[in-house]
Amino acid sequence: MTSRNEGRLAGKVAIVSGGAGGCGAAASELFARQGARVAIVDRDGYAAESLAAQLRDEGLQAAGFGADVAKKAEVAKAVAAAEKRFGPTDVLFNHAGTLIVKPFLEIEEDEWDWLMAVNVKSMYLMTQAVLPQMLAKGAGSIVCTSSISAVCATPGEVLYDTTKGACHMFARAIAIEYRDRGIRCNAIAPGFIRTQHGIREINDLQAMGVDISEPAIAQQQGRLCEPSEVAAAALFLASDESSFVNGTHLFVDNGFSAL
Fold it and tell me: Is the dihedral of CA 3, 15, 67, 185 positive or negative?
């Protein structure tokens, strides 16, 4: 195992939203093992602190904070607590998100507003809360979790696809506005992933009659993406190894978006 003093995020402070489960948890673990002091922010505060405790038992530096990242007051409280614990943030991984699979004409207004808040407003709130710390340092890396759904539309996912399209442009626009002040912002866009969230998406699409069978996935992207593969892509964009990568969309989809 790489020493935390020799890792690719050695000496850095990282915040991971939605960091207690799925790809977020994989990233929290990887970032900590690569030397970062990791603030795991999740709506499930118990899960966030439980994961942080496991990492601390390995001699790594992590802390869990409960927050609904679609609510400004809770974001501000969590970011302030993370700064008090570890210092100013170097890396922000805007990973929090979920989905609704539903025919477009059946989507209720409150569902539209809710998913926009979880998937899009959360990026705005987290980035706005953390960015001043990065600007004071003159450096920082922001990574946002998008999806192939930003560019590859799927029946039953009009709302979800729209939120991920917004994520794509959010990352690009932040990169342009703050590039000359030392801030990078990029998006990762995974295909179908082997997580609880990803399996639910597949099941919901199949229930609507969309062909997301095993043979269909094999044709589109070969196999399901593993959470560790998404985390590895996030690590690259978070680290100084990607110092000249800014405003990009990194597809983690084994060619799905290239078809």
Answer: negative
